[in-house]
Amino acid sequence: MKPVKIKDGIYWVGGIDWDLRNFHGYLTQRGSTYNSYLIVDEKIVLIDNVKSYMFKEQLERISEIVDPAKIDYIVQNHIEMDHSGSLPLILEYCPNAKIFASQKGAEGLPKHYGDKWKYNAVKSGDVLELGKRTLSFVQTPMVHWPDNMVSYCKEEKILFSNDAFGQHIASSERFDDEYPYNILIEEAKKYYANIVLPYSNQVKKALTVVENLDIEVICPSHGIIYRSRIPEILREYKKWSANEVENTAVIVFDTMWKSTEKIAQAIQSSFENKGIYVKMRNLQSNHISDIMTDIITAKYLGVGSPTLNNNILPTVAAFLAYLKGLAPKGRTGFAFGSYGWGGQSVEIVENELKSCGFDLLDKIKVQYVPTKETLLEIRESFEKNL
Ligand code: FEO
């Protein structure tokens, strides 16, 4: 397992998780990486770790450059276990290494790994002298845990950004100019939508800090390293964190006997007639984490469910629970669905959309199977809403 040189004396020594397909409910079709970085100066510093089961890879990569026993410092920008899992394992090799984390990180690490080691708290503005280089710290709380911070090496103009700007991509390519740009941005968008979105206000603050740094390389803790597309990813983060939406729609639904699907298609026609791009997302064939990627830039969100046992379909319930947790703001929502007798589903969906704080369009309910005439009526009346 080879390390990858980023600049003289600075290396990527992470792990590539080719087989990862589920990251606490997020479908990671392309796998992921846990990026760990090594700076070799008068002091040797390891920045972030990897999941515990990837330790062998990390250790092999480090050992290609230095004897791990020589590591002086370990900077833990974030304590979540995808980045700290191998911390106790590497410490077996360098038990005297000093560990640095934010205050919340220093409080959280012993709650994961016990108090065998001392965890040193740093705050924004603190600087670690490495020799020719320095590493300074900036707290980025709630992007996306309370302990998050980033590290900046001003002499090399490198930002070690941890989860910010990450993407779940397993690849042999390490840099943005080696990897297809469209896939990179799509995966960065999916990452933002599924991990970072609830913390957009904190992202805005963090961006203000980042924009004042002179940066040639952004080294995130997942996926591809940016060295050629930095303005692009900063621009996208600005857009996503500012909740900038396009005049597009996403229609999410599940269906029992295709009546709810027919209503969805009638609404699709309404959007098309108004020249509004629309994505149809049947929950039987689309993962909720992919749907979230569509939603972060869409103005309209329709959610449809037939009534089942006085309730909504479980797939729709799971989607709405996920949506509420990620809390996109300022969308225009609407509920629709078919029913046989009780007909509770549409109100349940509508209440959920209301609790997301969305503006609501009129709900649409049809008993049993919609006729051609009913579908035409739905199309025409919905169109008038747009
Ligand atoms: Fe990639 Fe919050 O851990």
- Biggest sheet layout: 7 strands, mixed
Strand order of the largest sheet: 1-2-7-8-9-10-11
Low-confidence stretches: none
- Ligands bound here? MU-OXO-diiron
Instruction: Tell me the count of domains.
Output: 2
What does this structure look like?
The chain has 386 residues and is α/β, with parallel strands linked by helices. It folds into 2 domains: 4-241, Ribonuclease Z/Hydroxyacylglutathione hydrolase-like (Metallo-beta-lactamase, Chain A, 4-Layer Sandwich), CATH 3.60.15; 246-385, 3-Layer(aba) Sandwich (Rossmann fold). The chain has 12 helices and 22 strands. It has helices spanning 55-65, 81-84, 87-91, 103-113, 181-196, 200-211, 230-241, 259-273, 288-295, 314-326, 345-355, 372-385, and strands at residues 4-7, 10-12, 15-17, 22-23, 26-27, 32-34, 37-40, 44-47, 73-75, 98-102, 119-122, 127-129, 134-139, 149-153, 158-162, 217-220, 246-253, 277-282, 298-304, 332-339, 359-360, 364-367. The strands form 5 sheets. The chain has a 7-stranded mixed β-sheet, with helices on one face. A hairpin with a 3-residue loop joins strand 7 and strand 8 (44-47). The chain starts with a strand and ends with a helix. The model has no long low-confidence stretch (mean pLDDT 97). The structure holds MU-OXO-diiron (FEO).
SSE topology:
Layout: E1 4-7, E2 10-12, E3 15-17, E4 22-23, E5 26-27, E6 32-34, E7 37-40, E8 44-47, H1 55-65, E9 73-75, H2 81-84, H3 87-91, E10 98-102, H4 103-113, E11 119-122, E12 127-129, E13 134-139, E14 149-153, E15 158-162, H5 181-196, H6 200-211, E16 217-220, H7 230-241, E17 246-253, H8 259-273, E18 277-282, H9 288-295, E19 298-304, H10 314-326, E20 332-339, H11 345-355, E21 359-360, E22 364-367, H12 372-385
Parallel strand pairs: 8-9, 9-10, 10-11, 15-16, 17-18, 17-19, 19-20, 20-21, 20-22
Antiparallel strand pairs: 1-2, 2-7, 3-6, 4-5, 7-8, 12-13, 13-14, 14-15
Helix pairs in contact: 5-7, 5-9, 6-7, 8-12, 10-11
